[in-house]
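Contributing: when you submit paired examples, paste them exactly as shown. First protein:
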Amino acid sequence: MPEPTKKPSMPIIGIDLGTSTSAIAVLVDGRPELLQDPQGDRIIPSVVQLMSDENFLVGAAAKNSSITYHDRTAQEVKRLMGTKEQVKLGNRIFRPQEIAAQILGYLKRSAEAKLGEGTVRDIVLTVPARFENDAREATKAAAEMVGLKVLRLINEPTAAALSYGLDRLSENQKILVFDFGGGTLDVSVLEMFEGVLEVKTSVGDDKLGGKDVDDILIKIFRDKYIAQHEGGKLPPPSRDRKLAQTLKEGAENYKKQLSFVPSVPVDMPYLTHEGGISFDLTREMLDEHLEEMLMRAMGLVNEALSRARLRWEEIDVVLPIGGSSRLLLFRRALEAQWGKPIREYDNPDEAVAKGAAIAAGIERQAFEDTHKDIMILDVAPHRLGVSAIRQVGPGQFIDGYFSEIIPKDTKLPATQRRRYGA
């Protein structure tokens, strides 16, 4: 069991800012606990709505009214972090980090409703392992906009492994984390030994997530509409955002149901003035459309093992996290490769936030006795370097040549020097 924590002056907080959902956790007596929002939700939709009075609505209330107020609602903004994309809500324009700040502010207020006003300040915040530096800086900026101080950004798979490993720190285990969230798929390989959690490698795809599964389901819906209405087509999202939101919510709902049952009746009768669609959606039907995604996902898994120089038989634990990891097609593929059944250690939606709270406890030296020396050894998720001019011949130069300084998977912190001459 975890050791008691010291009593710091401020609560020890970890936040999982997710593409589809977010969560906030606090460390209490060495154990991370998720906090509820005013609606009683611990897993909170990452949805922001600009109301007519110019105030913001966040969470389930915003999601539940997103069809009615589709032009004032923002979702999946995490995919835009670090870009120059803009988000239009009503007649106003926002940067992605400004929308993310509304989610973080809501989480902060929800936590302070239980912990006390002004008590939530220093936090550990999670990000996808694949996040580029611009996206990481934008995420920190969003936190700072609502008065949060980010002690550390920790990669989501590392946080999940930390949540799993807190009760097993004395064990020597090799862990594969399959983080299949709403916006990205990250695969990390870690080793746990003598109180140390060492990341070996992380690979990922920021265009492979639950949203992409939703898009496949939406295509199935659109194809069914054509078949059931003699070639009539549904208007594209750009022409009918309300319809697009209806299809999206339907996709999310039926996707979740197919994680538990082999088929589900789809009944969406009022898509247009001509009617809607009605058919039985089977897990087999969805799986056929997911084959290409499955190949990409398993390719990442094998790449991670190769980079970590490990074989499947050397992996002790497979941790699927993120809502999309419940899709049986992917889980069964992992089990087939590993040759073992996957155990359910924690709620896959909660593991990242809990791990973030544990990481916050480490940062603030809150653990006592056997847990006081817990260490997280991370690696560079990308290769780092500078743009340079390279001479390729007498009087011949290549502009914009990438000169690598720190290779991917270099242990952090890392220092390298390279001299460039004229």
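Second protein:
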Amino acid sequence: MKVSDVTLERVNELTFTVSLPQGSTPFTFTLPTYLREVTDLIKQNDADLVQAQVIHTFDTFDPDGNYLADNNFRALLYDWSDLNGDGNLWTDANSNGVVETSEIDGTTGPNGESEYNRIAYGYPRGTYIEVSAGRDALSRANDGVFFAIQRRRGAAPIDLQVRMSFYKKVDWNLVTTSAAGMNVPAKGTATFNATMQVPSDARPGVYQGAIEVSEGTNKSVIAVMTHVAANSTTFDFGAASLSEKPGTNPYTNGHLFGGFDWSWRYDSGDWRFFFYDVPDGTAKPGQKMIVDTDWADDQTDVDTWVYGADKENVYSTEDPAFFGPSGVVQVGGSNNTNVATTDGNGTFIFDTTTGGSREVVGGDIRDGLGAIMLHNVLNGGKQFAEPFTGSAYQVGIAPFPATISTTLSNGTIPFTFTTTRAISEGLGILAFGLTEPVTATQETTNQDNPNDACTASFCA
């Protein structure tokens, strides 16, 4: 039996623009709006995975800003069977680039079979749509494979950007196996070891691949994923800069693809996960963790959720050997702006702590394993992969709490603020507490209308 460790790497990509004219909404559920044959591209690249991404801007998705989608699309891959033997699936008779019912070979088989059948499709109600298929699914295609876009809502002229990426399996440099092959006796067993070696300079995030064990055409795939965690509350995550290009793997730790879906649920949208391990004794009164995430597009919104160790987690307390010493519990994060609309339950109103393309949140520090989770709830749709940068650091104030016992009406007390990272914007300080009473005399009050708050008397 053959043993190998693999990961996917992009070997080629093709980008192009699809321009749809006025009134290009299909009248039948199965009719595509746009078609392009990609059979030769798949063969030329000998692809293990084909990924097609479609984006359009938020301004075209929701031009009136009412959080209801005005334009919506599907991306599809079709298996084509030339049932009538004419050598084509579609002829653009009027040269308008749009598939018309009279132009496509639909139901042409003797028993009502269709010439094109869906392999896979993506249909989120958002600015980013993706469809992909692997070698096995594509190998079962008959006379060809077509990429398609179907317009489901809207009629205005629109430009869609498309990127088709072709990936092949390559040796995974993070994993080595003890043997490239082995013999398994009849009714017996054989073993091998797999070792993962993560570089010391690896940035926090997720790294993934697989171990394949094969014999002839039979193959078993063991998915392998590791989370590289930071070892303190102070670390960088995401891309190195907002100009960084995405890597050659399908998943990247420094870029977000969008993927939000107003027609679906709260969890829809692209996510990124970054774990951190807080040494024992770090958590102290007056200490907090700050998470600062930055991106470029002011129509993109990335929510940040901060989790700390939960050592009272029922699974960890019942079986720590299996579940680990602790779970995680939310200790801070963004405002929850999820709303239900007629589109669905996946809609979020734009909201960041800065009012722009940056989110700064804080959370309690707990010794043990914690996590930062980023949720791409809105995406501007201008890039196939939008880079983001992130930094986490620790701040503290002492004394905390401050207890003052005095008979004096005024005075001062020194506080010390500490941070593990420079704060270039500086600090603003707000004070809250009891104030000296103010007595107002000779004020006139009028009877109000209990049903109208505007008729109440006010003293300012």
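If you have annotations for the second protein, write them as plain sentences, like these:
The chain is about 5% helix and 40% strand.
The chain has two domains: 9-170, 229-433.
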